[in-house]
């Protein structure tokens, strides 16, 4: 009888784990909307709504992951590969050094445009 009780307890535990995995893989209506809106910024949403209604709107500027990586991960003209990858920019730039002045200046210009859209 004890073996049967242990078997039933283990079986119930396995079923709970299995059904929990199934529930986590099935998106609910509330979660899918939440995930979609988490990728859309406020100014992007305003742009979408304005253009949908035929109103002229300035397209929002986005700061690319690699521009963020160049500004955040360059240290003494060498990019930190882990930092770059954590910001969704690849770590390999082949022949170019992303920490060269020309790339840093371009990244600074992009950041300036990005942050100015919130001020104006």
TrEMBL record:
This is Uncharacterized protein. It comes from the Eukaryota. It comes from Danaus plexippus plexippus. Residues 1-19 form the signal peptide. Keywords: Signal.
């Amino acid at each position: 009888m004890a073996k049967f009780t242990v078997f039933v307890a283990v079986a119930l535990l396995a079923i709970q784990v299995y059904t929990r995995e199934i529930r986590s893989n099935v998106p609910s209506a509330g979660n899918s909307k939440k995930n979609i809106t988490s990728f859309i910024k406020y100014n992007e949403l305003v742009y979408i709504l304005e253009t949908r209604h035929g109103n002229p709107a300035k397209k929002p500027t986005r700061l690319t992951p690699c521009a963020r990586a160049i500004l955040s991960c360059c240290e003494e003209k060498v990019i930190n590969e882990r930092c770059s990858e954590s910001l969704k920019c690849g770590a390999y730039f082949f022949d170019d050094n992303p920490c060269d002045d020309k790339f840093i200046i371009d990244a600074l210009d992009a950041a300036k445009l990005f942050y100015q859209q919130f001020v104006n």
